[in-house]
Amino acid sequence: MEIVNKNTYNEKLLDRLKIRQNNWKPASAFPLVLWPSFATRVTYAENYFVRHTHYEKWIVCSVERGCLQVISNGKVHRVRPGETVFIPPGSHSLTAEGGETLQRALGIEGHLLHLILENLSLDRCHVVRDFLTKEYISLFEEIYDLLGKRELENAPRLSLLAYAVLMYAVRFVPREEFPEEVVQCQQFIQQNLFQKITLKDLCRETGCNRTRLTSLFRQNLACSPGEYIIQLRHQYAKELLAAAPGIPVKLVASHCGYCNQLYFANDFRKRTGMTPTRYREKMCSGTKQEVSGVLPHPGQDHVEGGPRSGNVAALDPAVVGDESPVGHGKAHAGALSHGLGGEEGFEDP
Length: 349
Prior knowledge:
CATH superfamily of the largest domain: Regulatory protein AraC
Radius of gyration: 21 Å
CATH topology of the largest domain: Jelly Rolls
Oligomer: single chain
């Protein structure tokens, strides 16, 4: 059964809608991993509403004036001036309350969106304060400008910016279930999953020594840091194989932190009981899926708020090319097949 996105608007007040929006989705033979589908400044008249059913975009909406009632997957939230709401994919409605409501909104979609949102705890509706900083406004304005130009050469940069917005948003999500050191590691791993990550990196990020950090992971996540990275990389691999049949297995391996396709295939088969190709055939049931969009190339400019500097390509999950962002040469291939990091790598449990 095909699920269809359905939009409903308050047509009586539609002529009072004030909107300045840019949206664009390029047609291409490359799969769309992450994409900022629209950027808008909009003013709703009082009682104007919009309802989306089976909506596949993640929305970040900041209220600058007025009040916005948001119903997301059955739960009611009120967003006041100075507050921002993160709206996950699904069914939701937006209604202006208490006069005109001025908003700044951005939508993101893509094959890996659901998995990234889940891993970043952005798959639920959150209302946060102090989100509209110079850093975010700079990201928003650049996305708005590039979407308006609709030039294919800007597509890699736009995908990079979409990921940067998610990395910025995750800073505002309350995390109380794990110790701060574990949360910091989760965020760092998520941001740098597509390159080599070492235990030394995580210790430097958190200020913990190796013994304490490993102990915290085992106590809270029931695995070592190295095993956690492996699990996350295989989650991404499964999502890409199932959602984007147009991506070659070699490119899936590169996206998920493997510089060697053979190591990736062997590791994948050990954990799933089948090769990546067989897994894709099973999940796709032999049907061909049409995909569109583009993948960024290595060496993109740095985006403020992204992962550690020095390897900007790691900021974006959609990295292409023969050079893997997780390391270079065959010397590290065995270690990288386990999500390790060379000399300072993790012990596989």
